[in-house]
Design brief:
Elements lengths: L8 H4 L8 E5 L3 E2 L4 E9 L6 E7 L5 E7 L8 E5 L3 E7 L5 E8 L5 E11 L2 E11 L35 E3 L5 E3 L9 H24 L1
Parallel strand pairs: 2-10
Antiparallel strand pairs: 1-3, 3-8, 4-7, 4-9, 5-8, 6-7, 9-10, 11-12
Amino acid sequence: MKWLVFPALLIMLSFGVFAASVSRDMSARVGPGDSVTVVFNLASLEVGKTFTLEDDLPDSFSFVSWEVSGVDRASVNHRAAEGNRHGWSFNATQAAMQIKYVATAPSLSNAYDFDAVWFDSSGQSRDKKSMLVKAILCGDTVCEGNENNNLCPADCPLPQETTPLVGESESKPGGETEVEVRQEKPGNFNGVLVVAAIGAVVLAVFLLMRRKR
């Protein structure tokens, strides 16, 4: 892959250690035609030294605008090359800076790769990231994005509530467990006691009368 060549770039490539730290911040997934913001957070820059960063965007992304924090736009050397490659070169005014650009995602759903390389007086480094362009569709059985049970119950159904059976334990908040106690119905047990009591009384009266005779 051919990269943009800025002044003194060939000299920078001869160094093997890279002091600056760069992290890319961008969405992992967007919808077709969405506006995409890519931010490079730069740290440990050598103040007063030249820093260069180039990012190779997928061809189907449309580049819209860019900005570099902490430095006048006129002092930034921004170049665009064939293949949707964009580069920024400037003298660092502070140790921490940002490069930000905005692009428009294509209409075709696919996974797209971004490939960035950066240089300073210490050397070079590289970063590769992927972005998925895919529309959020209700009915694909995947609950995602802004979908919820109200907007798309087919993808985001409410969890089914289960009723515990008799004798099963039921968990409560705080880790406590309540055990449902199975109660036996009295049934005819009380009736049996009444009959037995009457029989005992009759027997006692019978024995008493017999003694009197």
